[in-house]
Amino acid sequence: MGYNNEALINIQIEYSQLLTKFLPQIENINEIELSNLLSIIDEVKLFWYKRLPLIEFELEHWAKSKESLLLSGAIYLDVKDNEHFFFNLFGEYHVVDDPLLKLEGFFRVSSENFKDESILNVFKRAYLDTLEVTKNYSNAIHILPAKEIVNKYNPDNQELIETFYWRFISTIFKKEVKNSAEFFKSFTSLSDIEKELDQIILDNLVFVDKFDNKLTLEERCEKYKVEFPQFRGLTNLQIINVATFSYVAQIIDLLLITSFLGFTPYIRNDITFRYFLLLKDTFIEEPSIRIMVEKSIIIYIMYNTVSLERLNKYNFDEFYKLTREGNILARTIDRLNSCKIEVIYSKVKPIQKIIDEEIDNLLKTF
Length: 366
Prior knowledge:
The chain is mainly alpha-helical. It has helices at about 5-20, 25, 35-60, 85-90, 100, 105-110, 115-135, 145-155, 160-175, 180-185, 190-195, 200-205, 215-225, 235-260, 270-280, 285-305, 315-325, 330-340, 350-365, and strands at about 70, 95, 140-145, 265. The chain has three domains: about 1-150, no CATH class; about 160-250, no CATH class; about 300-365, no CATH class. It has a four-stranded parallel β-sheet. α1 (about 5-20) packs across α7 (about 115-135), α16 packs across α19 (about 350-365) and α18 (about 330-340) packs across α19.
């Protein structure tokens, strides 16, 4: 049992054929020339460009009537680690924004990144995962150029992202800060920032992993420089601005894409989710965005509380068929509403309990 949309299925088959053509080069990626790698990305972009009108039509007339999820805050799905079981547990239609397009900027902006073995290895893993999805899981997951579709109508979101970023900075510091110049004028040291921030904000202002909240801001900045050596030349105050902006921009971007397409963000990354929660109050006055945020919170709780062993002991095709019929997300939301549990402000345990019960009910039917 899979998606009954012939047009989108055919596109996945065609994309798999295109990706297969690149396999010999990607398997020896450390020997590939930059021009050849960019040529691969250009072929991928051309492939999607030719099919954008058809994809838009199908998403508008077919996918919008379904509970559709978009992998957000991650470059690729990672079926090798069985992430497709989690991804398909909730929702009816599942999309991964093309990972190869996400990585284009690393190689297009600077040839220095091309010499970075770690970035090349990320590209290789993303490619292999994308190929695996299109070859073996296209009945359950589709690779699509989600951001390209939105960019067609909103080619330059930078001004909007800048506006929201400085609004966010002004909110957390409880004073108006309009731009970088005002930020560096207002704060001359990390201790100035630590004094001004509420503890809950400070705990969630993390840059590398969830353990950052045990570190001082200075330690977090130094850790960020180790993780991202291209920023070693910046001061720690500049790191605060750069790192925070990158995560806020990511959240604004994913909200723009998912709201435009009528999808729900499937967020599994801890840092992305923290910034998602920090920014949520900016958007939840809009009812449709509030519902989307609630669903993302439920999904994140599921991802972090349900063990993989509970799911992947089943044959995936049978598991997928069962989850499609079970509609756990809708049933979970109905029960939360009947129990008058407000997802956005609730503690985790009551939501987790209902999720566990619904999953148990579903798996009993195996």
